[in-house]
C-alpha cells in the first residue's frame, strides 16, 4: 500500500473534526468543509473551513492551484495602479 493519506484535525470545545484524504478525494474533502461550515448545529465556522481548505490545498495542490500561485507570485505593487 503506497497510497499517502493526509490527516487534518481541528478541536473546538467538545467537538473534534478529523479529516482523512488523499489526492483522489481532495475535492470532496473541500466540499465537506463547506457543508460543515453551513451546518448551524456544528461549532465549525466558515473561518475554520477557509483555514483547513488552505492546508488541504498546500498538502495536495491541484494544477489550478499551481497556476493561480504562479500568477500571484508574478504580481507586483505596480499591477494595482
Account of the protein in words:
By secondary structure, the chain is α+β, with helices and mostly antiparallel strands. The protein has one domain (6-74). The protein contains three helices and two strands; from the N terminus they run E-E-H-H-H. It has helices spanning 26-38, 46-59, 63-73, and strands spanning 6-12, 15-21. A two-stranded antiparallel sheet has the order 1-2. A hairpin with a 2-residue loop joins strand 1 and strand 2 (15-21). Helix 1 (26-38) runs antiparallel to helix 2. The longest helix is centred in the middle third of the chain and has 14 residues, at 46-59. It is extended. The model has no long low-confidence stretch (mean pLDDT 83).
Number of helices: 3
Strand arrangement across the biggest beta sheet: 1-2
Q: Based on the structure, what is the oligomeric state of the protein chains?
A: single chain
Topology as a string of helices (H) and strands (E) = EEHHH
Helix content: 40-55%
Largest sheet: 2 strands, antiparallel
End-to-end distance, in Å? 52 Å
The gross shape turns out to be extended
Given the helix and strand composition, which structural class is it? alpha+beta
Amino acid at each position: 500500500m503506497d497510497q499517502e493519506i493526509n490527516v487534518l484535525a481541528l478541536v473546538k470545545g467538545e467537538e473534534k473534526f478529523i479529516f482523512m484524504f488523499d489526492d483522489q478525494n481532495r475535492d470532496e474533502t473541500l466540499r465537506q468543509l463547506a457543508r460543515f461550515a453551513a451546518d448551524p448545529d456544528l461549532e465549525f465556522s466558515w473561518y475554520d473551513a477557509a483555514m483547513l481548505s488552505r492546508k488541504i490545498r498546500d498538502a495536495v495542490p491541484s494544477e489550478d492551484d499551481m497556476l493561480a500561485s504562479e500568477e500571484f507570485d508574478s504580481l507586483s505593487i505596480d499591477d494595482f495602479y
